[in-house]
Fold:
Amino acid sequence: MRILSLAFLSAVSAFAPTTRTSFRSISSLEMGKSQDELKKEVGYKAVDDYVKSGMVVGLGTGSTAYFAVERVGQLLKSGELKDIVCIPTSVRTKEQAESLDIPLVTLDTHSNLDVAIDGADEVDPDLNLVKGGGGALLREKMVEIMSEKFIVIVDESKLTDGLGPGFPVPVEITPFCHEHTMRQVGDLPSCEGCKPVLRMGSSSSNVNDGDEIAVTDNGNYIVDLHFDTPIKDARKMAEDIKNVCGVVDHGLFCDMSTAVIIAGSDGISVKEPKA
Structure:
């Protein structure tokens, strides 16, 4: 039996489910599921529907992507999936995948992916996303933008009519003169109304849980942009933020989703971008 290190257990504990139940198909009559059960259903369905033998697969980061990684490991162990390689989007996803004996590669050797599966913190009607609550936004975007298909997995609580008020938009910035970069971003006209807040404590949570500045896997800082009203033009804001010198990347994922799989108390639905 493989013995997992304390470091690994600590790294994934924030994303592990609070309950463990076996996967089963959805019925419209099923009600009263926990959030973990909903996350598990979409995570497993995404892998079952989109991952095939011989593929290069991007593995997302977070509490919903956790279940997709788990499902890949199960299908490899059972022999239902063969000859796949995967690219993790964070250190903790890498450690989870290694514990499941999932073969891993990087973009350095495999620049083109068949599919990537990941969660999201918010999804608007055009399937634009806010991502990065778990602090892995740069690696997630680098992997997912290179995927032929990007499958987003969420529960219905993540759906919104407008990005911003429901979840802060994370921006990864360089540590050098970070207060200057925060001001530059906050002063952008397209970010009007935002309150930039430097993430403290753990980089995997936008809740202040420590006295030290949060540091990403890439050695950078994160600024969370808090909005009281919906972002007026997410695409314009994404372009403007990326153009600020000192910004590495941001958590707006616009026009990237191939499909969004949504779990609700009355079953699973799939949304695709409007033609």
User: Anything to note?
Assistant: The longest helix spans residues 35-50.
